[in-house]
C-alpha cells in the first residue's frame, strides 16, 4: 500500500518534471541595438517569455506574419498583447521586465517594436516560427514596409534614428530607473485573458 503510494507519487512527479515550463529571457535593446536578443525562440505550452528592457525606449507589440509592423486584433476583437513603451535611463541599473505565457505552441506569435522607425529597421521577434513562416521572412517583410522614396537619404536615416532616445550623453540629473509605474499597461492584459489569446503579462522590476 505504502509502496504503491510512493510509486504513484513518483510517477506524478516524473510527469510534472517532463512538463516543467521554461522561462525564456529576451533582452530588448541589448548594447543599445535595435534588437530583441534572441530574435526568435521555440517555446512549449506553459513556457514564459520575459522581455527585459535594457536600453532606449522600445515596446514589444504583437503583430502578424502578414503585417509585421502593425498591431493585430484577436478573433474575439481584443487587441494583441503590448508591453507599452518602456523607457530606460542611460545609467539605469534596474530594468522593466514584461512576461507573457505561451498558451498554444502550434500558433506562431509575431512581435514588433512600435517606436518610430524601429520595425522598418528589422526590430521584430517571433515565438515558434515555422518552416513555412520563418523569422527571416518575417523580418524581411518588416524591413520592406519602409517606403523607398530615398534619394539623398540623409533625412531618412535621421527619421529612423531620431525618435529613439533623447539621451544626452553623460545624462544629467534624473531619477535612477523607471519604477513600475506601468500599471497602465497591465490593464491591456484584460483583453488577453478574456479570449483564447496566447499570452498574459505582468510587469516586475528586475535588477
Ligand atoms: C552585447 O555585448 C556583449 C559584450 O560585447 C556581447 O557578448 C553580446 O553578444 C552583445 N549582445 C548583443 C545582442 O549585441
Ligand atoms: C518613448 O517613446 C514614446 C513614443 O515615441 C514617446 O511618446 C515617449 O514620450 C517616450 N518616453 C520617454 C520617456 O522619452
Ligand atoms: C497599437 O496598440 C497599442 C496598445 O494597445 C496602442 O497604444 C496603439 O495606439 C496602437 N497603435 C495603432 C497604430 O493602432
Ligand atoms: C492552437 O493553435 C492551432 C493552430 O492555430 C489551432 O488549430 C488549435 O485549435 C489551437 N489550440 C487551442 C487549444 O486553442
Ligand atoms: C526598398 O529597397 C530595398 C533595396 O533596394 C528592397 O529590397 C525593398 O524591397 C524595397 N521596399 C519596397 C517597399 O519597395
Ligand atoms: C543617473 O544619472 C542621474 C544624473 O547624473 C543621477 O541623478 C541618477 O542618480 C543616476 N541614477 C543611477 C541609478 O545611477
Ligand atoms: Cu524599438
From TrEMBL:
CDD domains: Cupredoxin. Coiled coil: none annotated. InterPro entries: Cupredoxin, Ser-rich/MCO-related. Residues 1-18 form the signal peptide. Residues 146-191 are annotated as: Disordered. The keyword Flavoprotein does not apply. Keywords: Signal. This is Phytocyanin domain-containing protein. It comes from Antrodiella citrinella.
Amino acid at each position: 500500500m505504502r509502496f504503491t503510494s510512493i510509486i504513484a507519487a513518483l510517477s506524478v512527479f516524473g510527469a510534472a518534471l517532463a512538463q516543467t515550463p521554461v522561462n525564456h529571457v529576451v533582452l530588448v535593446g541589448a548594447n543599445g541595438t535595435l534588437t530583441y536578443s534572441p530574435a526568435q525562440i521555440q517555446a512549449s505550452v506553459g513556457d514564459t517569455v520575459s522581455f527585459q528592457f535594457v536600453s532606449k525606449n522600445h515596446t514589444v507589440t504583437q503583430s502578424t506574419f502578414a503585417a509585421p509592423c502593425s498591431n493585430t486584433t484577436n478573433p474575439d476583437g481584443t487587441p494583441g498583447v503590448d508591453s507599452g513603451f518602456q523607457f530606460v535611463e542611460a545609467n539605469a541599473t534596474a530594468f522593466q521586465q514584461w512576461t507573457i505565457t505561451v498558451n498554444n505552441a502550434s500558433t506562431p506569435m509575431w512581435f514588433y517594436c512600435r517606436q518610430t522607425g524601429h520595425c522598418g529597421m528589422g526590430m521584430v521577434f517571433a515565438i515558434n516560427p515555422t518552416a513555412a513562416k520563418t523569422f527571416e521572412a518575417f523580418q524581411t517583410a518588416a524591413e520592406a514596409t519602409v517606403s523607398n522614396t530615398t534619394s539623398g537619404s540623409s533625412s531618412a536615416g535621421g527619421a529612423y534614428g531620431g525618435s529613439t532616445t533623447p539621451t544626452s550623453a553623460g545624462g544629467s540629473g534624473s531619477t535612477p530607473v523607471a519604477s513600475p509605474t506601468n500599471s497602465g499597461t497591465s490593464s491591456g492584459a484584460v483583453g488577453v485573458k478574456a479570449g483564447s489569446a496566447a499570452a498574459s503579462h505582468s510587469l516586475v522590476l528586475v535588477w
